[in-house]
C-alpha cells in the first residue's frame, strides 16, 4: 500500500508532518490539535501514532487533544523525556527500531537542541513510497540547525553528522519553516557562494507564492547548509554564535 507525506503549516512557522497509509495516519510533533484533527477527519483517517522528537510545547502542544479524539493512538517519545512528555506510551532511545504503520522506523539520538531530542527515519527499503525520509524536529533545518538550549556545539556536530550519514535523496522533514531566514543569513556569511544565492532566490519565490519550502533533501543541504558543512565542533560553535546574534 502506498504512503503519502503531507506538510501542515501551523502557528507562525511550525510544520506538522502527516504520514498517511490507507485510512491510517501518523503525526509528527503536533504543535496544536485543531488543524491536525480537521485534516485527519476531512480524509476520514484514524490516528495510529504521534511521533515526538522533543518536549518543547510547540511540538507536543496538540498531542493530548488528539488523544481525546483517538484514545488508542500510541505516543512515541524518548525515554529520557518521560518526565517532560509524561503521556508517552512507547518509550524509545537512539538505535532502536519500532514498527509504525507496519513499517520499520529507526530512532536516532540527536541530543543537542534539547538533551533528549530524537529523530525518526524510514528507509527506502522499509517504505519505497515515502522513504528515505527523516523526521528531525529542531535538529537539522533547511539551511540551518536548531539552537543549543541544552546541548553543546559538539553535541550538535555529532547529531548533524549522524543525520548526514543517510542517502543524499533523503527527504528532510524538519519542524519549522525557517528556510528563507536561514539562507539570507548564509548568503551574508558566504556572499560569493552561487549555490546559496541561487537557492535563496528560489526559496524567496516560493515563499512569495505562499508555498512551504519543505521537505528539503540531505543532498541539497550538503551543498548549501553551512552547519552541515562545518568541519568540526569549533566551526559549528562559531556559526551558531554568529547566527544567534544575527538580527536578520
Ligand atoms: Zn524545540
**What fold name stands as the CATH topology?**
Metallo-beta-lactamase, Chain A
Percentage of residues in helical conformation: 25-40%
Determine Rg (CA atoms, Å): 17 Å
Beta percentage is: 25-35%
Widest sheet: strand ordering = 1-2-3-4-5-6
CATH architecture: 4-Layer Sandwich
Return the average pLDDT rounded to an integer: 97
Basic shape: globular
Question: What ligands does this structure carry?
Answer: zinc ion
Summing up helix and strand content along with how strands pair, one would put the structural category as alpha/beta
Multimeric organization: single chain
- Poorly predicted runs: none
CATH superfamily: Ribonuclease Z/Hydroxyacylglutathione hydrolase-like
The top-level CATH class is Alpha Beta
Task: List the domain count as a whole number.
Answer: 1
User: What profile does the largest beta sheet have?
Assistant: 6 strands, mixed
Short characterization:
With 248 residues, the chain is of the alpha/beta class.
What do you see in this structure?
The structure is a single chain. The longest helix has 15 residues, at 194-208. This protein has one domain: Metallo-beta-lactamase, Chain A. The strands form three sheets. A six-stranded mixed sheet has the order 1-2-3-4-5-6, with helices on one face. Strands 7-8-9-10-13-14 form a six-stranded mixed sheet. Strands 11-12 form a two-stranded antiparallel sheet. It contains nine helices and 14 strands. It starts with a strand and ends with a helix. With 248 residues, it is an alpha/beta fold. Zinc ion (ZN) binds next to loops.
Amino acid at each position: 500500500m502506498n504512503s503519502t507525506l503531507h506538510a501542515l503549516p501551523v502557528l507562525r512557522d511550525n510544520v506538522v508532518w502527516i504520514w498517511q497509509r490507507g485510512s491510517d495516519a501518523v503525526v509528527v510533533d503536533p504543535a496544536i490539535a485543531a488543524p491536525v484533527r480537521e485534516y485527519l477527519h476531512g480524509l476520514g483517517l484514524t490516528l495510529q501514532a504521534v511521533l515526538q522528537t522533543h518536549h518543547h510545547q510547540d511540538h507536543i502542544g496538540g498531542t493530548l487533544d488528539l488523544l481525546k479524539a483517538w484514545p488508542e493512538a500510541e505516543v512515541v517519545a524518548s525515554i529520557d523525556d518521560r518526565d517532560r512528555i509524561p503521556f508517552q506510551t512507547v518509550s524509545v532511545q537512539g538505535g532502536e527500531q519500532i514498527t509504525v504503520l507496519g513499517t520499520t522506523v529507526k530512532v536516532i539520538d540527536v541530543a543537542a537542541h534539547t538533551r533528549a531530542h530524537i529523530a525518526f527515519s524510514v528507509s527506502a527499503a522499509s517504505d519505497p513510497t515515502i522513504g528515505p525520509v527523516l523526521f528531525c524536529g529542531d535538529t537539522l533545518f533547511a539551511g540551518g540547525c536548531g539552537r543549543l538550549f541544552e546541548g553543546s556545539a559538539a553535541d550538535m556536530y555529532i547529531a548533524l553528522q549522524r543525520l548526514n550519514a543517510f542517502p543524499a535523496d533523503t527527504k528532510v522533514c524538519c519542524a519549522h519553516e525557517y528556510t528563507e531566514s536561514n539562507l539570507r543569513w548564509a548568503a551574508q556569511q558566504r556572499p560569493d557562494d552561487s549555490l546559496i544565492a541561487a537557492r535563496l532566490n528560489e526559496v524567496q519565490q516560493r515563499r512569495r507564492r505562499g508555498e512551504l519550502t519543505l521537505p528539503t533533501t540531505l543532498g541539497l543541504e550538503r551543498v548549501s547548509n553551512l552547519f552541515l558543512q562545518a568541519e568540526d565542533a569549533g566551526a559549528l560553535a562559531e556559526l551558531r554564535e554568529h547566527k544567534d546574534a544575527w538580527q536578520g
